[in-house]
Amino acid sequence: MHIPDGILPASACVGGYAATGVATWLSLRRISRRGDAELGIPRASVMAAVFFVASWIHIPVFPVSTHLVLNGLMGVVLGAYAFPAILVGLFFQAVMFQHGGLTTLGVNAVIMGIPALMAGCAFRILTDRWPGTRMTTVWGFFCGASSIAVSVLMLTAVLVVFFGGDIDPSTEEDVVDVLFLSHVPLMLIEGVITASMVRFLRKVHPEMLDGGR
Amino acid sequence: MTTELDRFSHLDSVIHGWDPRTRIAGLFVFALAITRLSGTLLAVALAASMVVFALSRLPASYLVERVRWPGIFFAALAVLMPFIYGDRPLVVVGPLVLREEGLQLLLTTACRFLSIVVLGVTAFGTSRVTDSVRALRSLGVPAILADLMLFTYRFIHETGRELRGTRTAVKLRGFSLRKTGPRALRVISALIGSLLVRGWERSEEVMLAMRLRAYSPGGSRRAEGKPNLADFAGLVLCVIAAAAAVLAELRQGGG
Amino acid sequence: MSCGKPMLEVTGLRFAYSGCADVLRGIDLRMEAGERVGVVGPNGSGKTTLFLNLCGALEPEEGEVLLHGRPVRGVLSERGAGMVMQNPDNQLFCATVEDDVRFGPENLGLSGQQVKSRVEEALRITGMSAIADRPPHHLSGGEKRMVSIAGVLAMKPDILMLDEPASSLDSRSRRRLISYLQDADQVMMIASHDLELILETCSRAILLDDGRVVADDAVRALFADGSLMREHGLETPHSIRSRQDLGTPDTNQIER
Amino acid sequence: MSCGKPMLEVTGLRFAYSGCADVLRGIDLRMEAGERVGVVGPNGSGKTTLFLNLCGALEPEEGEVLLHGRPVRGVLSERGAGMVMQNPDNQLFCATVEDDVRFGPENLGLSGQQVKSRVEEALRITGMSAIADRPPHHLSGGEKRMVSIAGVLAMKPDILMLDEPASSLDSRSRRRLISYLQDADQVMMIASHDLELILETCSRAILLDDGRVVADDAVRALFADGSLMREHGLETPHSIRSRQDLGTPDTNQIER
Predict the structure, then answer these.
(1) Fewer CB atoms inside 10 A, N or C side of chain B?
(2) What is the ipTM of this complex?
């Protein structure tokens, strides 16, 4: 789901970097206001590494296999740190595997990171209002699936804005549908995995779900 | 899966000798310009990127390895793009219309992709990750982000080893991770969940270990030498080349 | 050579991780039912790799591993060789101890009832029944070790292979592990740097170095050979050495 | 009590992790310059927590830790107590060995030249100069251990505290560590389950159990007290025990 180098025009790349700069600045400001930056950095780096490695696990979805993104879970666990952690993860994916790209790093960070922040907030609000094990699991599914959905929407929006003019409208609609539908299995998988992860963490290490706080 | 970014950082070449700050900045500006180029100018830029790569003495196999992953993406694009993009039909095969703009866009995109990847591989493959990140820091990346990058890089290897160990353990007890179905998803969640919990617990120790060595985020860091004249010359060369190419492209587009 | 078929027979086993030099360079060994064998050797001598080959998690490049005369292929089969890995954290990934022990038998495709009785038995044997509901991540080192053993025992392996079972245990848990190992009615291979543990639990020992079996003998005789041990980076355990220092005739110890 | 000020003086030290029972329940101890002290005790006896309190990473609830007569506060100060933690993997967080050793001195805000000479010295002392450029994940267990020691040494601590330095080392690396510890010209406290290692490197030992100092004596005398050791879940090391068994006169042990 990451946009590789060369696809987007310069304006999109620069715009992506600008948006990422703002989001990073806001995240870091929120972090330093909380006053636990000293403790948060090692934690965020270790967790970013775990999420990075988790993306190596391939899930077979007939007939292809997909890999996990888990940005919703990152938002739930890391809170404000999710954005910088995703940015760093994408950077290493770009320089290690050319998965995503360097010029498109900013755009990709926004596509992955903003839904993560949203999922973190949503999870905190929802579990505050409707707590309980079963509901928490439901919220886990919701945050996992919806953050992928939002990412796909943002991805589609970016592609349509920069290429839409030159595709005839009916084809464009088809392409958008295909793009969205092809990500539905991933949404469900991410939802299920995030849900069972949230349940697991609640049982084993509940304070890990307080990232959004 | 190889994660060895430092593998060829010890080689000796003009590019290796180029100060990482000016190198990364210069090549990045050039790469950004490439996203704006097309036609002959793009071909020239691609050739220039290849020359830079050749100067770095990185083995070609390293580049090929890097391009393999996104190659799949481009294969998909290659199938799709020429048929849906643009409106000037080139060849009509049954219900499918091969369009000129689509084909052109595909070619352009592939060339841009290739030259940017070549530049990226050269920029980051010719110094150790630590030095690259330090360079990024002096180029204005916030200190906290730079620390995050360094520590993450280190723990990617540690966590990767844990994942391999857990995979072996799962296999030893008769489960194949290639399976599909709800149970497979449950096992994978449990597996990632335990990596997360271990990571969390590890992070408490890492924090302690850092405090024991007087860490404060973005605290005092190594005073680095200044890039020399040649380093700056390289940077200026890149910027001029990038600007010239973009201007030429704009003039072409205008005319 | 011996009476009937050996339980485990390994001939000319060679193995290399892809792109690397050979780790195992031709291993031959036999093990009879009822034996308990210690495997010693410096780091990097190939102990873990040997175990992974014996239980079918790695495929040998050359040579054969026969269990009860049948070649070992893959790890899914029951009554094969089970391996307890060095780091219990790698092995314990479920939300509760019970789930973790259940994981293996479930993969064997047993019925619910069979799985249940296996889990109960394994937890009972290892003395872990009381903590069945706890999450494994918060157990002590000794408990983690016993649970990871239970997880493998529940698969009813013919041979249990333990890789560094005492690593990072304190003296109390180590003592508990040793008495479990001594009492267990189970064919075992134990790889360890803790030679005193091998001495207390095994009758026979194999010295591995650089992917080859350098010695294969009664455990006391092997450990008492000071020059051989030193040559392969090991130290004769103090419990044997001190007696030697004092001039006591070795191997067959004198009574106090 | 003794001639002049002790180097380290701990009085009535109590500590509890938030919301838990006390881990340290009133520790008193003194250490003179030039001493080397082993700390032994079962898991959970408070060894690690004690070390963390001594070097200022944790704040005592009650009592005082004085180093050279000054209270220890926080860990930022130079010439304090440095601690090498049990798991070297969590301690080496930089991408190369050299960066890792440099990490501490850099945080102290020293000049580039000072940092450089500190790093070189620490790597030289630990014998790790040759691998300065390697990434930590490519090192052997023994190398990781020595590098993590170098990382703390580069901060020039007055006291070096080592928590389980021999855990998961093979016999060769353990031997190398021991000879380093024996030769090192550094005040140290070593906590370990490996009593033979304490015996070879320390002159004095402290037995900790349940957050209290149960015994504080010359290392041989302490370890030879079989009933005391057993009571606190420890075993008299074989190197002492065997001599006792054979009737060698030893401190104050009753003959069987």
Answers:
(1) C
(2) 0.85
